[in-house]
Design brief:
The chain has 351 residues and is of the alpha+beta class. It contains nine helices and eight strands. A hairpin with a 2-residue loop joins strand 1 and strand 2.
């Protein structure tokens, strides 16, 4: 008996029909659930590419952090080597190192985002807009920061220097990116914003090696000028804090109304300037007085006022004169007449 033929079963159709009216994401999801091999291969390739990009991005990030630390350390050491004659300023070192570190980190983050497929142009545009807004909001503070950076770079003064800034004189106790702290002579704490300090005249009294002091003395016209100048030079030579070079200078510098001015110029170290100047002033005064010199004072002249009397031809008739009061009027005296009339200004003859 001939075998009977088995009926053929049609294969199962697993294709997922797509509806063009569905969204693309839904259609792709239905294809993924249906086991579309082409889509699975695409997903596998995309996952592999993403993994590679993530690995490269992590490597860039780690390299960025290492470069930021290395460059900041290199900047700190470079500033220290640049200030061999003076101790390096820790404020300048920390600021420069932080600036370099943050710049390198920002560049690295932008590179990481670019590796991950983010459009860096939009990120840079957002950062620029944010920086502009922050700069406009903090305009005054940022001007102090910019002035602080210029002060740290140009170094017109350092901590410990005696300076005159914006009309304030004191010793610099602190310097940061926003203000400069001074200690005045009466121990007051003065905070000067860096914008005003950098935009005004700065007088550093500790920067020069020596400072010149000028002392003026007024003597009488009858005194011997040459002998007075010798006294000034002798006092300057006897002062141990006066610098030998430049040599002390003494000259006649003015011919006043009642006195002759002789001047003494000599140089002192900045730390000895005030004490040495005042001590030398007292020594010169004592020596001049011991040598018989006099110190004149301004003249004062007393002026008396009297009543005006007309000439004899213009006087009133006798009858009218009889009605005049018997006592003559008191003479008007100016306020200066009360002062005693001085002798010759400071002359030894008047004394």
């Amino acid at each position: 008996m001939a075998p009977t033929a088995t009926p053929q079963i049609p294969p199962l159709d697993l294709t997922v029909p797509t509806d063009p009216t569905l969204p693309p994401i839904v259609a792709q999801a239905r294809r993924l659930v249906g086991g579309d091999s082409e889509m699975l291969r695409g997903l596998a390739g995309a996952a592999g590419g993403l993994a590679v990009n993530l690995a490269v991005a992590v490597a860039i990030l780690l390299l960025t952090l290492w470069a930021a630390r290395w460059l900041s350390t290199l900047t700190t050491n470079g500033i220290a080597r640049a200030h061999r004659r003076h101790p390096a300023d820790t404020t300048l070192q920390s600021f420069a190192a932080s600036l370099v570190r943050y710049v390198v980190i920002i560049i690295g983050l932008v590179a990481v985002l670019g590796q991950l497929g983010v459009k860096t142009t939009s990120v840079i545009a957002v950062l620029g807009a944010a920086s502009l807004a922050i700069g406009l909001a903090l305009q005054g503070a940022l001007s102090n920061v910019a002035a602080g950076v210029m002060i740290l770079i140009l170094r017109p003064y350092r901590v410990g220097d005696t300076v005159e800034i914006n009309g304030k004189t004191g010793t610099v106790k602190g310097l940061d990116l926003f203000s400069t702290k001074l200690a005045s002579g009466d121990n007051l704490a003065v905070f000067v914003p860096n914008a005003k300090a950098f935009g005004d005249v700065i007088v550093n009294q500790s920067l020069p090696v020596a400072r010149r002091a000028q002392l003026d003395f007024k003597i009488d016209y009858d005194d011997d000028v040459d002998r007075a100048l010798e006294v000034l030079r002798a006092c300057a030579a006897a002062e141990p804090r006066a610098a030998p070079k430049p040599a002390p200078w003494a000259k006649l510098t003015d011919l006043g109304d009642s006195a002759i001015t002789v001047s003494l110029r000599c140089w002192f170290a900045p730390k000895d300037y005030e004490d040495a100047r005042f001590d030398l002033m007292k020594a010169v005064k004592d020596r001049l007085e011991a040598q018989g010199f006099t110190f004149p004072y301004p003249h004062q002249v007393a002026v008396e006022a009297r009543k005006f009397e007309p000439p004899h031809s213009e006087r009133a008739p006798a009858k009218r004169r009889a009605k005049a009061p018997a006592a003559p009027p008191a003479k008007a005296v100016s306020p200066r007449s009360a002062a005693a009339r001085p002798t010759r200004a400071g002359s030894s003859k008047g004394r």
